[in-house]
Specification:
The chain has nine helices and eleven strands. It is α+β, with helices and mostly antiparallel strands. It folds into two domains: 166 residues, no CATH class; 60 residues, no CATH class. The chain has a six-stranded antiparallel beta sheet, with helices on both faces. Strand 8 and strand 9 form a beta hairpin. The protein is globular, with a radius of gyration of 19 Å.
Length: 263
């Protein structure tokens, strides 16, 4: 069978989880051979960075997700060390490294305040690769007509390191059109239980948007190319939309940090 990423004929023995097991996915997997063992092993490196150097460090423990070895999830982002509950209770986490910079608006009466967690800690590029990997794997598995319709050569060149120029993506809850689910039937149902959704929206011949939602986090990326035109509407309609990696902000002239928005 031919690998959808590198194009090599292979007889893979490993199973490609379309959505990482670290998100709690056990069932939604690609057919053996559609992703070769070499690509699978290579992708696990940026997948690990994306999961351990982003807001997912907070979200996975908050949801009570266990590790592959059945232990509570732990991670660190910036100065914060996060650990999920030992019994995997949702919304029960412990945090070390809390200080005046990341914890504000403390109310002595209720013993509550606001904890600021960075979205990324040098993991933006890895996250864009993770999104693109999930997008192509899911489209190939569940939307074969869509897979055959478009040219994904830029995506595969990026993931196989033939072209290492950064690929832009957004965090935003805004929808600019009718997004449709990529997984079907039982796959769609099982992912929603995580809770997780994978959706697509065909904007035009050069813009096929992939929307990944994991609990409170939503990320959007154009899987066909690095064009920035589609992003402008999101930044104008959603005041909380943020473009990554940061250097793309200079090209589009948007605001990309909460601190800058507050100023």
């Amino acid at each position: 069978m031919q690998c959808i990423f590198c194009g090599q004929e292979n007889a893979a023995v490993s199973i490609e989880h379309i959505v990482s097991e670290s998100f709690g996915n056990k069932e939604y997997v690609a057919k053996k051979g559609s992703v070769c063992d070499k690509c699978n092993n290579s992708f696990s490196k940026f997948e690990g960075v994306a999961l351990s150097n982003s807001i997912f460090v907070m979200e996975r423990p908050r949801l009570g997700v266990s590790t592959k070895k059945g232990k509570n999830t732990k991670g660190k982002i910036d100065k914060l060390e996060i650990e999920g509950h030992e019994d995997f209770k949702r919304n029960h986490i412990s945090a070390k490294g809390i200080n005046d910079e990341n914890f504000t608006e403390f109310d002595p009466a209720t013993q509550t305040g606001k904890l600021f967690v960075k979205a990324f800690d040098k993991g933006e590029v890895a996250c864009s690769k993770l999104l693109l990997k999930m997008a192509l794997s899911s489209i190939y598995t569940s939307q074969r007509k869509l897979y055959k319709k478009y040219n994904f050569s830029e995506l595969t060149a990026f993931l196989t390191n033939e072209n290492q120029r950064d690929w832009p993506f957004l965090t935003s809850s805004y929808k600019n059109g009718e997004f449709k689910s990529i997984p079907r039937f039982n796959d769609k149902y099982e992912l929603k239980r995580l809770p997780c959704t994978l959706q697509y929206f065909e904007v035009d011949k050069d813009t096929l948007l992939f929307r990944f939602t994991y609990s409170a986090i939503t990320m959007i990326i154009n899987v066909l190319n690095r064009n920035l035109d589609w992003i402008k509407e999101y930044l104008s309609k959603d005041s909380l939309a943020i473009l990554y990696p940061d250097h793309y902000q200079r090209k589009i002239g948007g605001i990309n940090t909460y601190a800058e928005r507050e100023e």
